[in-house]
Amino acid sequence: MQLTHSVWHPGLVGQPTSEAKLPTVIAIHGHGAHSQDLLGLAPYLANGRLLMICPEAEFQIQPGMPSYTWFNATPDLKRTPEEFERVVGNVSNFITEAQQQYNADPNRTVVLGFSQGGGIAYRLALGDPGRFAGLAALSTWLPDEAAEQASDDKAALAALPTIVQHGSADPMVAIDRGQHSRDRLAQLGVALEYHEYDMEHQISAESLTDLTNWIVKALNLPEPPAPQFADQEPTP
Description:
21% strand; two-stranded antiparallel ribbon
């Protein structure tokens, strides 16, 4: 696969056999982060029962630092529409290959994007809504390209579970950009769950709880198995 990536594998928890297809989250990090930035969510999402695959952006911002960005910008620090589509294509191909390599269930895969990564997630899911079981857009905005290239299949867009989460005090992606994205998604007919939180550019305990509850529903996951304890003699 072309992209460096990190993976959380749930093992056999809740799976009948080692060959069972795994419910999956593809998590796309933001500007200045790396492939392990969102991997820390994995133990908390659905009690760690999900396969989580986190691709890493191509371009290192500062040599020697684990800080990457998705787009190769022009000298005036603006990305071109062609560059956006190139990156989306690379990530799309990566997802297909990663699903095969790690035995992901293509019918139970959610695409999640944080900040800059959210624009990529929007483009992937809205352009081909039948490909994913859900779209999670965190502290991000809906790019014009993603809205303009959204599928013409209104029924498929309406059937795409989507959650948008944003901090009311976000200093990097202002809350009005999240609200504008919410309104554009509603115009597209997307089945939307929208949340604002008293937080900055981050994932809080409250937003994480809402996110995991949404993922469990979107992927139609069963209740986690009850813990099994061996019988023990009482301690005298």
